[in-house]
Structures are given as C-alpha cells and as structure tokens.
Amino acid sequence: MSTEFSILSATLLFLFVIDPFGNIPILLSVMKGVPQKRQYQIVVRDGLIGLVILVCFLFFGAEFLALLHLETESISIAGGVVLFVIALKMIFPSPYTKDAAPVMEPFIVPISIPMLAGPSTLATLLVMVKSYPNDQQDLLISVGAAWAISVVILAMAPLLNRVLREKGLAALERLMGMLLLMMSVQMLVNGVRSLFTHTLAAL
Q1: Which among 126, 179, 182, 185 counts the fewest CB atoms within 10 Å?
Q2: Quick check: 173 and 93 in contact, CB under 8 A?
Q3: 39-69 per-residue burial string, b: 16 or more CB within 10 A, e: under 16
C-alpha cells in the first residue's frame, strides 16, 4: 500500500480480507437444504446487515482509536501483522471439515458476521480509518465496492462450486492470499518507515 490513498487498492485490500471465495464452502454447508431462491434472499438480507456494521465502524472507528490513544504507526504495523497472518492461513489453510447442516436457516451468523464484517475486516477498516482520516468518503466507496463484489460472489456460491469445484476455489483463495501477503508486507514497511522518520525527526 502506498502512503497516498487509492480507492482501487483499498477495495482490493478489503476484498482479499473478506475472502468471499474462501467462504463459499462454509456458506454451502450452512445453506444445505435451503431452496436456492431463498438462499439469494438470505445472502442479500445478511449482506445488508454486514454493510451496516462496516459503515458504523467506518464513521466511528476514529473515535474508537482515539479513545485507546493509538498512533498511526502502531496501527499500521499491527494491521500489517494481522493481514500477514490472514494471508498465511489463506495460502496454507487448515483442513476444512463440514459440520452438520443447521436445523434453522442462517441469520446474521455466519454471513453478516464473520464472513462480511468479521474481526479481520473490522480491524483492517480501523487501520485504514486511522491511516487516512481525510478520505472517509473514498473509504466508503471502497468498502461498498468490496462488499458488493463479495455479496455477488457469495450469492453465486452454488454456481461457482459447480464450475470451479473444490480445487478451483482453493486455487483462487491461495492467489488472493499471495496478493494479500504482499500488501501486508508493504503495510509493515510503511509503518516501520514512518516510525523511524518520526523518531529521527524528534532527535
């Protein structure tokens, strides 16, 4: 990530963190037995709830960080570490075991939280809010774009599963993991560079 805000870069970052392709197997499991038309309605409904959560964190995230007295450099470095760990898990996933299908259809969990507005996505959003305090409108566009793409992908889960199969989905997730890994390292570099710059300036 460069020090100058980019809507496209931020959109890709949020999309990689949300990782809709990696969530498809889980979604198919919890939707088992639910009519396909109803599946679309559930994804849209829970997707809107997830969007509300993301927007709330976008506009109130700065106040949350100010309350904790966190500096931009520490947020950038911590965010880079978190994204680095997420990327490694995407590249080297743990074996996925399907649970028994739930008796009731999903509501909020797991689509709104944690698929769309999970801890990783919210933490990344807080990092972006702290790093680019004057670009909230552009951040809103990025969050909205990443959210829309993710919801479309999740809604197409049955079709994508038939077309790509398990190996194709796994390959896409690993590719997204590699890209996220590079972005996380750049975030770490930016944070460390800024920290050293401020330290030298204070001497």
Answers
A1: 182
A2: yes
A3: beebbeebbebbbebbbebbeebeeebeeee
CA atoms within 13 A on the CB side of 64: 14
Residue tagged 């801890």 (tokens): 119
DSSP, collapsed to helix, strand or coil, labels residue 109 as strand
pLDDT in tens, 94-112: 765 444 444 468 889 889 9
Sole residue written with tokens 């990783």? 120
- List, in sequence order, the alpha helices (H) in 69-155: 72-91, 119-131, 136-155
pTM for the whole structure = 0.75
Q: Would you list the domain boundaries of the chain?
A: 7-198
HSE, side-chain direction, 13 A CA sphere, residue 93: 20
Q: Exposure pattern of 136-163 as b/e (b: 16+ CB <10 Å)?
A: eebbeebbbbbbebbbebbbebeebbee
Q: Give the separation between CA 78 and CA 85, rounded to whole angstroms.
A: 11
